[in-house]
Amino acid sequence: MTQEQESCFGLKKLNLPRSEIPAVTNVDYSDRIQSVSKKTNKRYHEMLTVFKEKYGCPVIVNTSFNVRGEPIVCTPSYAYRCFMRTEMDYLLLNNYLLEKADQQAFKNDSDWKSEFELD
Predict the structure, then answer these.
(1) Where are the chain's structural domains?
(2) Cα–Cα–Cα angle for 36, 92, 45, rounded to 5 degrees
(3) What distance in Å separates the CA atoms of residue 24 and residue 17, rounded to the nearest whole number?
(4) Tell me: the pLDDT tens digits for 5-34?
């Protein structure tokens, strides 16, 4: 941190960018990076390589796939449902890349936020 950043306090200090990839950098500057070997996971490694070529960053945020309060996504149908219910733009599902803008409106999904109690 610069001296100016060091002098910040509270939320101002908390909101300072900590790295080029803030989504994976904790407040104390630590992270939980996992590497992917071409030798042991060729397909995933190739996907990360293409991602780096296209966006300049060879990092994918790999987190629990669910909406707060809901169980973790375990099937393709639940993955699609979660994708359609959230603000995600794309879903990579096996060999398919789905773009939200190309999907039909999600039907029969009224008041879905009340299905699960928030933690």
Answers:
(1) 15-63, 64-107
(2) 20
(3) 11
(4) 889 888 888 888 888 777 678 778 888 788
CA dist., res. 91 & res. 84, Å (int): 9
Classify 21 as helix, strand or coil. coil
Most confident of 35-44, 53-62, 88-97, 101-110: 35-44
Residue 87 DSSP code: S
Question: What is the per-residue pLDDT across 65-89, written as a single tens digit (0 to 9) for each?
Answer: 888 778 889 999 989 988 898 888 8
Dihedral sign of CA atoms 20, 21, 25, 30 in order: negative
Distance CA 76, CA 94 (A): 9
